[in-house]
Amino acid sequence: MTKTELEKLAVEVRKGVLTGIHSAKSGHPGGSLSAAELFTYLYFEEMHVDPANPKDEDRDRFVLSKGHVAPALYAALALKGYFSVDEMKNLRQIGSFLQGHPDMKHTPGVDMSSGSLGQGFSAAVGMALAAKLDGKGYRVYAMAGDGEIQEGQIWEAAMFAGHRKLDNLLLIVDNNGLQIDGDIAEVCSPYPIGEKLTAFHFHVITIDGNDFDEIAAAFREARETKGRPTAIIAKTVKGKGVSYMEHQAGWHGKAPDDEQYAIAMEELGKAGEALCQR
């Protein structure tokens, strides 16, 4: 895909996020919006997956360790063809398979149930080890939040992954700088993130996580890295794409009302139109 095509898809991911959260009247827009480009690139360029065969044993795996940003994952899965985009309107509704956090038993395309912060990355490490032990060529991708990596279990998993030289494992840290209580540096600073992961024998790449050129280059570099796992520290904007949500910790876990939703969708619509005119 061209960069413009990917950017258009990222806009559609953001629309799906807001539609779902507005319909549910609950959810986590800030971190979902910040990672839209990353989800878009993963599912439309990087990963070997097939919506027609979601349980293919040789597929690449993805674990959303920061499970509360499930709306962005669901939006990407819907656009990929795992289920109808209209299902986003059923987010968090009784009887819907789109729960507030990913559920591998009921949602097509979800490889691991997650939501308890810190635990998802451990599951991803286990998947990567399994691939090595079974002689399989699939890769395992995990996304963690920068607030989430305050959890000790993240570093236990990182220590194990580095020790076992799991070069089929890629950790993406969505470094948008904000968590539910404010600036991560003030709540409980995880910095310097890159240096810490390097100490755990990771190959570390730091990028602008909202720029497709940098994302593409980082994923290529990760694939070429042998003998150790890779971590991409993706600097992103919390609430990206919606002017009143950007850089605002208050939008970590709050749904827009009708007026706010209309404004957000209008802004995203204009962004999409601008991309069509390129």
Structure write-up:
This protein is of the alpha/beta class. 44% of the residues lie in helices and 12% in strands. The protein contains ten helices and seven strands. A hairpin with a 2-residue loop joins strand 4 and strand 5. Helix 1 runs antiparallel to helix 10, helix 3 runs parallel beside helix 4 and helix 5 packs parallel to helix 6.
Order of helices and strands: HHHEHHEHEEEHHEHEH
* Poorly predicted runs: none
Please report the distance between the alpha carbons of the first and last residues. 15 Å
Radius of gyration: 17 Å
Mean pLDDT over all positions:
98
Using the alpha-carbon principal axes, give the shape.
globular
Q: How would you characterize the largest beta sheet?
A: 5 strands, parallel
Number of E-state strands? 7
Strand content: 5-15%
Residues in helices, as a percent range: 40-55%
Number of helices: 10
Strand order of the largest sheet: 1-2-3-7-6
Helix-and-strand structural type:
alpha/beta
Topology, element by element:
Elements: H1 3-24, H2 29-34, H3 36-46, E1 61-64, H4 70-80, H5 119-134, E2 140-145, H6 152-163, E3 169-175, E4 178-179, E5 182-183, H7 184-188, H8 193-199, E6 203-208, H9 212-224, E7 230-235, H10 258-276
Parallel strand pairs: 1-2, 2-3, 3-7, 6-7
Antiparallel strand pairs: 4-5
